[in-house]
Amino acid sequence: MISEYQLRLLPQQAANETTIKEFVSREKGIDARTITHVRVLRRSIDARQRTIYVDLKVRAYINEESCDDEYEKVEYHDVSSAKPVIVVGAGPGGLFAALRLVELGLKPIIIERGKNVRERKKDIALITKTQAIDPESNYCFGEGGAGAYSDGKLYTRSKKRGNIRKILNVFCQHGATTSILADAHPHIGTDKLPRVIENMRNTIIGCGGEVHFQTKMTGLVITNGDTVAGIKAEHLPTGEQQEFHGPVILATGHSARDVYRYFHDNGIEMEPKSLAVGVRLEHPSELIDQIQYHNKHGRGRWLPAAEYSFVTQVEGRGVYSFCMCPGGFVIPAATGAQQIVVNGMSPSNRGSKWSNSGMVVEIHPEDVGESNDALCMMRFQEEIEQTCWQQGNMRQTAPAQRMVDFTRSRLSYDLPDSSYSPGLISSPLHFWLPSIVSKRLQTAFGVFGKTSHGFLTNDAVLIAAETRTSSPVRILRDTVSLQHVRLGGLFPCGEGAGYAGGIVSAGVDGERCADAAKEYLG
């Protein structure tokens, strides 16, 4: 017999299969010797009250062997002689588009400006040592995209856009732990995700697809004035100019500003898009554990590093926590010279002594006064990032301020220890951040501090600036065919085109664009 149960357990009872079996046996009146296996189908933590519970949905095998697979496998076949489709970008949108193309019997040709995920790691390590950014290989550019070395969180609210379960299954098929299928907030970890990405690339190449690293799209090949027949590209190490022919899935990520400028200069339809701008807020992880688990001893032995989520409205705009990284690090995420951008990441064990999140304010094009300019939000980002660089002594040293000092508009004369490895410099963020951001953050922190006692503290530090929360533009596409509104054969895709907001939603959109390309090719 196979039965499924909804269980509510204490953390120590949910710790492993043996203790879950004991609970099922006791609560359901089943002889423990007959329970051959228990599989967790869904797991979430309820920390709303002082007693913490773990809610589980489990499948119990009673006098039965567990013969069903933990995840559904996708069959990939040889496509070396199939019709080609160009995929620009090897982030989650591009990789899932390419895998779906293989599944559909088409040959993906991936064009990626950055390096493979292993070589890219070396350039990321140099940022702290040299205080310089490689504009083609950094935390945003390279195989795996912006998510590869900034956490690997797989939680999404975009439940209606496509098959989220399929995306998680493909990750499992390429080496991710099957716990991501059960966890309410699934997370691979920045230490494990690169290997999964390598495996995805190897599947694509093994089936006859192509992957061209350090190859940068410089333009589109347009025929008859309204059809995209391929791309122009440059192989960066040699300067060799190349062309790749076929319909184009454009999945360049939210920081490919040269692509946005190319589209703008060539009259290719885009529009400015609302985004969120703010800071990274970093607390000691022990303090967040104490607050969220209502216990002065913190998480204890059985609970993971605590997460939080805050949201409020200030003067008609949302202010909220974003990309919360328990037990994580703050990282330098700029993509060029004279920029400071920060982001967050966590290893799989979420074991650092800090926890951080983006604390951001919703900004609309009309807030910056140029809503008729497709690049107005991008320029708004750039101005903040350059100001940060100037405040940081024109290095990757990030301007920072203690949390209470920020709310009281006073300079911090010293700063707490931080995970941000290039270093911090005390700076009056309240003074030079745009007032539409700083004033709303000050008000929101007061609200959050009342909601969660101890959260508003000078033991926490604000690190500027969090600007790359999403794309600053939307490349316009037809809602049915997913092609650009004027250029046939061009499929704007994922976060960079303004149609996704994270790894999973970008993967879903990549699969949808692959399906659309298949239909386009007949």
Describe the protein:
With 522 residues, this protein is an alpha+beta fold. Helix content is 27%, strand content 26%. It contains 12 helices and 22 strands. It has helices at residues 17-28, 92-104, 117-130, 164-173, 193-206, 257-265, 285-292, 376-391, 403-407, 429-432, 435-451, 503-521; strands spanning 2-9, 35-46, 53-62, 84-88, 107-111, 210-212, 215-223, 227-235, 240-245, 248-250, 270-272, 275-284, 311-314, 317-325, 329-332, 342-345, 354-363, 398-402, 424-426, 461-466, 473-475, 490-492. A 7-stranded mixed beta sheet has the order 13-14-17-12-20-18-19. The chain has a 5-stranded parallel beta sheet with strand order 6-5-4-10-22, with helices on one face. A 3-stranded antiparallel beta sheet has the order 1-3-2, with helices on one face. Helix 2 (92-104) runs parallel beside helix 5. The protein is globular and about 70 Å long. The mean pLDDT is 94.
Structure, briefly:
By secondary structure, this protein is α+β, with helices and mostly antiparallel strands.
Descriptive tags:
26% strand; globular; five-stranded parallel β-sheet; 522 residues
Using only CA atoms, what is the Rg? 24 Å
Structural class: alpha+beta
Q: Specify the number of helices.
A: 12
Largest sheet: 7 strands, mixed
- The count of strands amounts to 22
Distance between the termini: 47 Å
Q: Name the poorly predicted regions.
A: none
- What is the approximate shape? globular
Percent of residues in helical segments? 25-40%
Q: Main sheet: which strands, in order across? A: 13-14-17-12-20-18-19
- The portion of residues forming beta strands comes to 25-35%
Overall mean confidence score, pLDDT = 94
